[in-house]
Amino acid sequence: MPTQIIPRAQAQRPAGVGNALPLGTRMAEFEVLKVIGEGGFGIVYLVQDHMLQRRVAIKEYMPASLATRGQGLEVVVKSERDRSLFDAGLAGFLQEARMLAQFDHPALLKVYRFWQANGTAYMVMPFYEGTTLKATLKNLGAPPDERWLMGLLAPLTEALEVLHAERCYHRDIAPDNILLLAGTGKPLLLDFGAARMVISDATQALTAILKPGYAPVEQYAEVPGMKQGPWTDIYALCAVVYAAITGAKPPAAVGRTVHDGYVPLVRSAAGRYSPSFLQAIDDGLRVRPEERTQSIDALRQALAIDGAGAGGVTVIVPSTRPPAAPAPATVLPPVAAPAMQPMPVPAAAQVASRRPPVLAWGLGIGGALLLAAGALLWLQRPAPAPAPATGATGPTPAANTVPVAAQVPAAMSPAATLSPAAAWSPLTEFDRIVQGRTPGFDVQAGAQQASLRIGRDRLAFTVRSSRDGYLYVLAHSGDGQWLLMYPNTQATQNRVRAGQAVTLPQANWPLDTTEPPGEEHFVALVSENPRDFSALQPVREAWFQKLPTGDAAAAVARAHTGAGSAFAGKAQCATPGCDAYGAVRFSVTVTR
Question: What is the largest CA-CA distance in the chain?
Fold first, then answer.
């Protein structure tokens, strides 16, 4: 990446946007097409990647109160007395990108590369469309029900748990910082402008961007005994739920320390939601940090959220007034660049008004034709049609829809503990594979796009292991079809190294997407030694091995008495303890 921006001769600065780069400006392979949004700290652009022939989003560090666009497109500080503050902000911009690069979760943002140039810095992100939770709640016309809210809280709390495990706190959660992705309704946590890595008490001096009603009291000043921590994000998240239920944000936390006029939800919303749900939100909104719910794990327990993970969560529109079905999401593949690093942008999304779909694998005539061309069709059962909107006024106005750079989806959480006697199903068998993993043998995996558009996108996912081993990927559809996807006849060498990022499918066995829409589920397993799946008596189908389904699969599962699952295969070694492996689940959503 060059360190200088080269404007094209025909580049023109957008009218009314004085600090934005001129349209047509080139940064290596990237060409500025449009200004998506300009805030107080940065500008986000829609950009064409000419090398990969796709569109992405780029965010530029531009604190309008401190700097302006000078000659030659250089960003210059307005006054030398602002230099130290500008430089501190620039360092924070880059530090935050490096920090967020470590996270890989479907409800978090991700940046693919960043660089410094022209006196400032830039980040490249994937490009999605959707509607903010704030706009969605306004369009619903009535408070959402508990099931709808739980559909948001499950993936959001999981994402915060990932952040907090690394002592990173968002500190700016609000309805306008939560995106509901078009086509799926899955939530995405946006705007980490206030997020910081918290390593010691010294970081308490960092200033956060506060939203009255959503910011807890400890964010307003350095008060002894009121340090920031997981409870800080818990307050803001519970304030979001409070606003969804009541239609108004909670009283400002500072005012509550003098006179607490907060009316508990267990009284104000009684009868409309379960008492335990309302009590969990009230406990997360206690003014004093030490009296508040202390961890995301404790909040999830209070809400009775299990460990199913965020990857498969679909937000269900409440029956009170569901919005009209959204237009297809614009989902663009990520920039294939060296690891260079995430960031937030203006937000927006539409809630999907359908039940989670069920998919099926198939290789009919269409599949055979694609295989002949070097690609595999994904065939699925149609999802139920959206329920008609009652009293709805039609699709969300265009003014409420804003393109957004979004997080690449990550793997689902480790599965909840399952007993061997639990009712058998393909998904529970995937959970048993994950359950049987070796402690400390960590595997991360996730699709590069949360949603795949029919006829336009190809599946791509990345796997990384904490140990050397052999990689196996199993896939299944909602009707119980199983495939050993990797290794296969086109890719037989599945040895991976610790820390190595493996991207699949490879170029010689691409997987295209076709009708109808729905969900696909996967397990990535890395084994210390090669594994043998012959006991499952797989049948070769095209490039892959098809595993037992239905009653045959259930019989195999019942006959297995060891830890984990028979569908994890068996290690090809005789040494005791040589069966060590790591595994993780993830999924993708297919949309029109």
Answer: 75
